[in-house]
């Protein structure tokens, strides 16, 4: 284990590969007086499982030594291998309402995926693109272990990870009930996908989701500036120190994207998908198509709730600037 993987006091990182444009996810090992815990688990591919086992071996930890696994949110690169950790003896923890959502997203009958297909069709996504989105998402099910039983934890709850106190903080936006862990004693934020360096996390509208995911996200980002964070351990990219500075950059990025959305929506009313293709001219996979339309909708809904955009209830639904 190289020393640069010792990323914060008593915290090690293992980098796991992803079969996506985003090439890696970080999982974090927290060392306490009474054993090891892990935050997030990676997507369940043979390559990621081998990397996890090798990374643990380098640290001198057996899979069975992991007492607790906290999962920040339901996405497959975070939740995927949780069942493998539980089967080896770890107790799984996740923010309670995120567990309920995970049941819908990863349901064997793909019901949320099908409802998303319908929503995106109404917002103008061409049928073949929408079909590809649905198939690619459903195929992801195979990379997510059955995750139950998983123990629900609450916003504000202080977890005892091997004798270390980390507080669960609800950070909606990237998913409705995404949560991070903050160790107040050391100023360490294990940030999941909430505060990322270089890239910004996808924020999107989905069926039965919270009504204003971008508003949620921006609020939850500002909240990070009040905590006294001195070290950020993100799920993607390198750890960094200046949490408030990065929050300001991400907030500024979304202000620009809101302006660009208004510009793209000006003139004749058009579908969210048409607006999306102006904002995202290059989309290289069904996953990227989904993230792009969901993100465009999050910006449009944010503008609508603040009186700046309007959607007409037709087939397809069209948007205009107020
Ligand atoms: Zn994610």
What does this structure look like?
It is a single chain. With 322 residues, the protein is α/β, with parallel strands linked by helices. The N and C termini lie far apart (56 Å). A 7-stranded mixed beta sheet has the order 1-2-3-4-5-6-7. A 5-stranded mixed beta sheet has the order 8-9-10-11-12, with no helix packed on it. The chain has a two-stranded antiparallel ribbon with strand order 13-14. The longest helix is centred in the C-terminal third of the chain and has 23 residues, at 243-265. A hairpin with a 2-residue loop joins strand 8 (158-161) and strand 9 (164-170). It contains 10 helices and 14 strands. Zinc ion is lined by residues 73, 75, 174, 193.
- Strand composition percent: 15-25%
Helicity level = 25-40%
Average pLDDT: 96
Order of helices and strands: EEEEHEHHEHHHEEEEEHEHHHEE
What's the end-to-end separation, in Å? 56 Å
Main β sheet profile: 7 strands, mixed
- Ligands present: zinc ion
Radius of gyration: 20 Å
Shape: globular
Q: How do the strands line up in the largest sheet?
A: 1-2-3-4-5-6-7
Poorly predicted runs: none
Strand tally: 14
Structural class comes to alpha/beta
In DSSP terms, counting alpha (H) and pi (I) runs of 4 or more, how many helices? 10
List the helices and strands and how they pair.
Layout: E1 6-8, E2 11-17, E3 24-32, E4 35-39, H1 46-59, E5 66-71, H2 76-79, H3 82-87, E6 91-95, H4 96-105, H5 111-122, H6 127-140, E7 151-153, E8 158-161, E9 164-170, E10 179-183, E11 188-192, H7 213-224, E12 231-234, H8 243-265, H9 272-279, H10 286-305, E13 309-312, E14 318-321
Parallel strand pairs: 4-5, 5-6, 6-7, 11-12
Antiparallel strand pairs: 1-2, 2-3, 3-4, 8-9, 9-10, 10-11, 13-14
The protein binds zinc ion.
Zinc ion (ZN) binds near residues 174 and 193.
């Amino acid at each position: 284990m190289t020393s640069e993987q010792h990323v914060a006091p008593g915290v090690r990182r293992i980098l796991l590969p992803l079969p996506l444009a985003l090439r890696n996810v970080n999982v974090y090992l927290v060392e306490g007086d009474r054993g090891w815990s892990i935050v997030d688990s990676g997507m369940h591919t043979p390559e990621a499982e081998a990397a996890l086992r090798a990374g643990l071996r380098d640290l001198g930890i057996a899979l069975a030594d992991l007492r607790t696994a906290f999962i920040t949110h339901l996405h497959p690169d975070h939740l995927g291998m949780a069942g493998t950790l539980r089967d080896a003896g770890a107790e799984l923890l996740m923010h309670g309402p995120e567990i309920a959502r995970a049941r819908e997203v990863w349901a064997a009958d793909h019901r949320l995926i099908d409802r998303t297909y319908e929503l995106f069709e109404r917002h103008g996504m061409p049928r073949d693109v929408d079909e590809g989105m649905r198939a690619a998402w459903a195929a992801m099910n195979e990379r997510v272990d059955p995750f139950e039983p998983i123990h629900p934890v609450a916003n504000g709850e202080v977890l005892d990870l091997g004798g270390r106190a980390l507080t669960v903080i609800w950070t909606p936006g990237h998913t409705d009930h995404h949560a991070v862990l903050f160790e107040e004693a050391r100023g360490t934020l294990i940030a999941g996908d909430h505060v990322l360096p270089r890239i910004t996390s996808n924020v999107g509208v989905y069926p039965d989701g919270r009504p204003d995911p971008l508003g949620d996200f921006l609020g939850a980002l500002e909240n990070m500036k009040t905590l006294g964070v001195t070290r950020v351990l993100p799920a993607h990219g390198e750890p960094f120190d200046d949490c408030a500075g990065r929050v300001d950059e991400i907030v500024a990025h979304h202000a620009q994207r809101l302006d660009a959305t208004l510009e793209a929506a000006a003139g004749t009313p058009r579908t969210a998908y048409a607006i999306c293709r102006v904002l995202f001219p290059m989309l290289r996979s069904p996953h990227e198509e989904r993230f792009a339309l969901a993100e465009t909708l999050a910006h449009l809904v944010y503008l609508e709730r603040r009186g700046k955009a309007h959607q007409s209830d037709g087939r397809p639904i069209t948007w205009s600037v107020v």
